[in-house]
Amino acid sequence: MRHIPLIAIILSAAACQQNGEIKTGSSNNSAYTLTEGYHLNEDSVLLFTSRKDLPENEADRLFRQAIDVYRNQENPAAALPLFRQSILKAPRAAAFFEYGNALSEMGDGSASMQARLSVEQALQAYHIADLLGYKPVSKLLYNTACLYAKSGKEDSAFHYLVSAIEFGYTNTAQIYKDSDLAPLREIRWRFDNEITAALSGASDPDRLLWKLFSHEFQPLELPVVFDTKFREDKSFSNVTYDFEKFIPEMRNAKFSRDVGSEYYYIGSVQSTPQFTVLTYAVQDVMMDEGAPYCYYLASFDANGKLLDKMIVGGHRILDEPFRVGKITGNGEVEVRKFAVRYEKDPAQNGYAENKMEEMNEVGVEYFAISPEGRFTPKSVPLAMR
User: Fold this and answer.
1) Are residues 40 and 184 in the same domain?
2) For the chain, what is the mean pLDDT?
């Protein structure tokens, strides 16, 4: 599996990949050329930066020009083409960071297509700045939080703001006065609870480990359905064994790590000061690389202690019913169970190119997420919305 750095995982779930290409004349990296239409394509940028003959002095001159226009003349729109020219000469982390800042000022929080595009491009610029080694990471996270807050995406904004604190952002005065974060401060109870908890936990190694784990889970758009199509067109990031204390299946499989199961971050369902509800997936690659994912819903207390857990999608073993779960925004969970028939016996032939021919429903269960963070059975159908 491809290794993805922690901060890259955090930022990439929100980044917008631009269309791009790499122009090549030979297999030598000196032939790679970066053109303006593709300056936010991370693969193109990373290949281009591997060249040894980039005009770095010219890039620095253009970058200083862009900074002067952006900061001193307070004209982000006029600075954007200068930042792009600098990047096309020799991509630098600082150039992408400031380019993202200028773009974020163009995303004025309106619903216009241009504003939304500026936000998406700013997020991608921050992502590439991280890939190129921008420091401090906490500032990238903080600016991302501000961008989400201005865009009205409160859950994501809180997510990145807390992460920024845990990665070392300690300017509390700025947090409490920054106009970009005003929408978060209006939710006073949540703002005070999350910021206080983040600041108090930043020096606690165990709490920090929990925060690093839990903040890898991006907020899910609810309602969400974990069916056979859920994984289509999605790329899940692997959970490493650094976090095995939070995933019981991972601890149980500790002696077969190389050939057993793969574990994936899926998303965050609910977060309160008392508990957090997350979803992760397990795939039995020992059984078959095409084996279905098994989706778990798990709740943890504020210190990362497991409170409750249940399967909401797929199945662990063939003899179990195949589950299709739906989680709604009001904290209710529906799990339908199916008897599944494949074209060929997957125990003998695996799942690759083995068509699922039939799914017959054999039962349904309903649950609600309680105020204590547990999954309480219900006897009545969900109030779907």
Assistant:
1) yes
2) 81
